Amino acid sequence: WFSRPPTIAAASAKLPACESSGTTGSGRAMGGGPCAVVGRMAAERKSLKAILQESDEDHAVGGAKLSLLDLTCIGVGSTIGSGVFVLTGKAVADAGPSSILAWPLAGVVCMLSGVSYMELSTRLPTKGSSYVFSYNTLGEIAAIFGSVCLTMEYGISGAGVARSWSSKLYETLGSWWVLCYNGATPPAIGCNNDEDNYADPLAGFMVLLCSALLARGLDCSKIVINSFTALKVALVIFIIGTGLSLWTGNMFESTTTFFPRGTSGVLAMTSQLFFGFIGFDEVCCMASKADNPSWTMPRALVGTLLIAAVLSGFAQLALCAAVPYQVGLSTSFANAFSDRGFLWASWLVKSGELTLLPLVVLLSILAQPELFAAMSTDGLLPSLFHKQNKQTGAYAYGCAVIGIALGLIAAFVPFAVLWDLISIGVLSGFNLTNAALISLRYGNSGERQEPRLDGLVWSLIASTGVAAFAWNAGALTPLIAGQDMHWWVVASAATSTVCAILLVMALACLPVRCDMDDPSIFKAHGVPFVPAIAMACNWFLVSTFSWEHIMFFITFALVLVILSVFYVCGKLDSHRSCVAEAHLSDESTGDQTDTNMSDSNSTANVDGSGNPA
Length: 613
What we know:
Elements: H1 8-14, H2 34-43, H3 48-60, H4 68-79, H5 82-95, H6 99-123, H7 130-137, H8 140-173, E1 179-180, E2 198-199, H9 201-215, H10 218-245, H11 255-258, H12 262-273, H13 282-285, H14 293-322, H15 333-339, H16 343-366, H17 368-377, H18 396-412, H19 418-441, H20 451-480, H21 487-508, H22 529-542, H23 547-604
């Protein structure tokens, strides 16, 4: 009874219901109001030791492991889809034959960010991708924002693809099994492929089906993924061969024929075709399931981007060969084959697209349970999401909850506006990853070893963003439209560009504070210059969206970050209550022990006759 009051750790051990916050640092356990919690969360970083320990635990769990082939199939299956089947037709209408050059240019822009993913996925080989990269280097608040971006790219986009698939099915069958919100009979104004203001039970069912398959584990899922990816690649090769066989005219006759809209058309199309590569980074989120991730991850990422660029570029060449350029005339492979009398080929393309598009739904949802499991392990989501089946390695409970939530979104939420928000989120996630690599290289991995680094990195993010937006609004957009440039905007762009260059030079002067000698770790070249260029390119692509949609995304992200902060505050309050109860319980037990000991001593000091001894 002379023992000291229990510590927080001891109280938590005595009361299993008092879950710890789950973070790697001690700042969060100190308590405080929301403002204090936000300050500590902004500075809180997840240590490399904790990340590697989680990685070892994940690899010790049963279930299938992903080889280089498996990871490449995941990347290619996620990437090849809308780019070949949708964007190629739009590119022909907007840039003509010169759109062939836009695909490799877009691939190069993707590769600029891809090298950051390659190095970080070998240094931090665990689930979570940009979320974990940001948590280790930029702080917990940045990590939460990164998780919002990834959720937009994975789960939300998967629900949107399910609605796209169902609309294509309805259009093919000529019967729409939807309920229009405006009461019209589909297809109608406000209730069609372009304006999906309707309830779609079939899309929700597709999401639930894919989630159920993922809940069974990768043993079953990867067979489906690899088989469907092989079929998708075979379909694209068939499209290329058939399109080239229908070659008509000479697109290389003159520069005017090949560049109907000049170089500005190529640049404008490059910014749109970039989105045909979205999905390559999903490979990184599966690092915890990868076999020898330090070797397989960089090769899977490079393979995904190369295969996607080659197939998409040749598909664009085939469509340009089969369909002569006409101003504003958008087409597709199915329509092109049908117009040339190849009805069987048109039917095969439509059937193949309907059959294989669910693969994109499956792959989009595939990484979401991994992301939520990482957040749950860190105490940012309930523990339900990181409960894992030790035999299959699947997060079955997480898959069930995610499947129900995304199924409801797919069934009832229109995606006419959400597609732009998803693209903005993807590009923002890319920039977080580029910033994370710079921060890791110069010492702020797991802890703030270089105090100046945070300010330099965040200033670089801001200056590249201002420069990209200003150059687009003040120079590029007016030039394409044939208007005069806005010189005061151009001056702002030039000033921001100079600031960004100075910040990059200041970063390059800092000493490197990470392991550069381990041969098993992929090392990106040109840091911090290449990540800074990648940031500028990504921000430029963001600037092509409307300000209304950009503000929608910022509002959405802020709401989710604020909700996460309040969730953490609620856990802290609950934790402190449990600790206080444990303390009171120990004191009560100590008082009872005092009473019992006193009674025992009194009894011991009395003889058999009842007289004091």
